[in-house]
Here is the input.
Amino acid sequence: MKHFKAIAAMSLNRVIGDGNKIPWHLPEDFKWFKATTLGHVLVMGRKTFESIGRPLPGRETIVLSRTGWSHPGVKTIASLDSVAALAGEREVFICGGAQIYAQALPLCFDLFLTLVKREVHGDAFFPAFEDRFELVAELRDTPEFKILHYRNRGLAISDVQPAPAVANLPHA
Here is the structure.
């Protein structure tokens, strides 16, 4: 099984969204997200994708959906089991929403978490992860937020299997 990276932003009270929108505007964090994920694969749920409204430039977007939903420029899959075959050797970033994080965090080797230094109202929350992940680095600290790097205690580096080469994948 291919292991992923998760990237998220949450408030002090674990909010990640409110009404399908991000309840803060932090341009510096958006720039960091872009620089970190550019050239890689983003995996998100349908609601998260719809809140963005389009595939993000320079990244392949895979949307998890149990319905027949589709959108131009986006690959749609029904489960995380299909991600490794689509991603090939590329890094995969899980980027929301709450249900997708809950499913994917056990498969994530790294978690990059922007902690917004305030409490906000919201209806989507980041799942508990502290019992599984340990803090390995504080990447940035600003008055409004900090960016933290966590590593999954349950996955050793030797557990991280390279994805199969694209040439070895079955043809659809």
Observations:
- The chain has two domains: 15-36+99-153, 41-90.
- Residues 27-37 form the longest helix (11 residues).
- DSSP finds four helices and ten strands in the chain.
